[in-house]
Design brief:
With 422 residues, the chain is an alpha/beta fold. It has 2 domains: 161 residues, Aspartate Aminotransferase, domain 1, CATH 3.90.1150.10; 244 residues, Aspartate Aminotransferase, domain 2 (3-Layer(aba) Sandwich). It is 39% helix and 15% strand. Strands 4-12-11-10-7-5-6 form a 7-stranded mixed β-sheet, with helices on both faces. Strands 1-2-3-15 form a 4-stranded mixed β-sheet. Helix 4 runs antiparallel to helix 11, helix 12 runs parallel beside helix 14 and helix 13 crosses helix 14. The protein is globular, with a radius of gyration of 22 Å. 45% of the residues are buried.
Length: 422
């Protein structure tokens, strides 16, 4: 690790929580260069929904590489891209009667967020955006402008303007946030212009695993329709099957105007981002939003394979079965340890909120988890929520083992806290 400490920038972060050198990985397991094994409850921050080195996807990638196919294509027409587009349309869009055009952006999620914001402002000829407290959308300037985290915003070094932050969902007790936005839009003295778009995650992942209520999502869609505002859903982390269905918004029966995908859309951890837009919104001029690596051919190959795997392995059903296990385990075995613990989640993204036990508690728990062979991260205000986000393909055996490690680690910390009080 001396090499990294001496030569790599101080900006590195995850390696500080997991200070070992990893060498191999398979499925939900990661291995260090010295042979230690870890269960992965992090899944590449949501980029590895299908696990590490999935055999089916790997075979498709290897076959493509071995046949001297196009490896870099900008936005040229290629066979790999066409096959992905056709597969995505047939397996994802058509069954849901969704009519979207596809835009391939620069290969990171934040670039697709930038594209969505640019397009919304261009279409509506308005500068403002409504975003939500607790939301995270990326680390480039436009994406940071709609991200609420104070320390992240300060790192921009300049004012981040033209965004109004609204309390998320029903998180503010007694406040009807839909009605609040309606008051802003109707009141000639609100001081806030009508926005071009409202951007949200239907499950705030980095915000602490906050799941939006279905009724609230439907009312938000109606509000956007009534006031001619575009609805942008950022499905970068909680899309691609993380909540069960492919899109996280399907449970609410709503259709966003723009959808942002990245992370697990490639299926294999390869860089890729994708913007879905209703056809009438596609007002771009050629090259108006581009990027050298918007045509990641290997990602197209892996993404097509991921869609096939999703169907053949009945992955949505797998997620719902594992969700049922997690829901019961967390409620019965974790929440019972201390009445101050709060449990939130859906599908295969869950949060254990230990904020009421003290700011350092989540850090201490995840540190013990790592020492006992589990990779798990924190989220939420002051990083006080333990975030469970394993690959969707994780075995039930390792899912249970990982949960037992959390339980034992949490119990040790709570016992220590109790001893201090005595």
């Amino acid at each position: 690790m001396k090499t990294f400490e001496m030569l790599e920038s101080n900006v590195r972060s995850y390696c500080r929580s997991f200070p070992v050198t990893f060498d191999k990985a398979k499925g939900e397991l990661m291995y260090t260069e010295t042979g230690e094994t870890y269960i992965d409850f992090f899944a590449g921050a949501g980029a590895l929904n299908y696990g590490h080195n999935n055999e089916f996807m790997k075979s498709k990638i290897m076959e493509y590489v071995a046949s001297d196919r196009i490896m870099h294509g900008l936005d040229l027409y290629t066979t790999a891209k066409e096959e992905f587009i056709v597969s995505f349309s047939e397996h994802i869009l058509e069954p849901q009667s969704l009519n979207y055009k596809l835009q391939f952006c620069g290969p990171t999620g934040t670039n697709a967020v930038e594209a969505a914001l640019k397009l919304a402002r261009k279409v509506k000829n308005r500068t403002g955006i409504f975003a939500f407290m607790g939301g995270f959308h990326g680390m480039s300037l436009g994406s940071m402008s709609v991200t609420s985290n104070k320390s992240i915003r300060e790192s921009a070094g300049i004012p981040l303007n033209n965004v109004t932050f609204i309390p998320y969902g029903e998180s503010f007790e007694g406040l009807d946030t839909i009605r609040y936005m309606e008051q802003i839009l109707c009141d000639t003295h609100s001081g806030i212009e009508k926005p071009a778009a409202i951007i949200l995650e239907t499950v705030q992942a980095e915000g602490g695993v906050i799941v939006a209520n279905i009724d609230w999502l439907q009312k938000l869609r109606n509000l956007c329709d009534e006031y001619d505002i575009l609805l942008i859903v950022d499905d970068i982390q909680v899309g691609c099957g993380r909540t069960g269905p492919f899109f996280s918004f399907e449970r609410a029966g709503i259709v966003p105007d723009i959808v942002i995908l990245s992370k697990s859309i490639s299926g294999y951890g390869l860089p890729m981002s994708l913007l879905l837009m209703k056809p009438e919104l596609d007002t771009w001029s050629p090259g108006e939003h581009n990027g050298t690596f918007r045509g990641n051919q290997l990602a197209f190959v892996a993404a097509k394979a991921a869609l096939e795997l999703r169907m053949t392995d009945r992955l949505e059903n797998q997620v719902l079965e594992k969700e049922d296990f997690l829901k019961h385990y967390l409620k019965n075995d974790i929440q019972s340890i201390d009445h101050n613990i709060q449990i939130r989640g859906i599908g295969l993204i869950w949060g254990i909120d230990v904020s009421h036990l003290g700011e350092a508690v989540a850090r201490d728990i995840t540190s013990i988890c790592f020492k006992n062979g589990l990779i798990i991260e924190r989220a939420g205000r002051n990083d006080t929520v333990i975030k469970i986000m394993p690959p969707l393909t994780i075995s039930m055996d390792n899912l249970m083992k990982g949960c037992d490690i959390i339980k034992d680690s949490l119990s040790k910390v709570c016992d220590s806290l109790s001893a201090q009080v005595r």
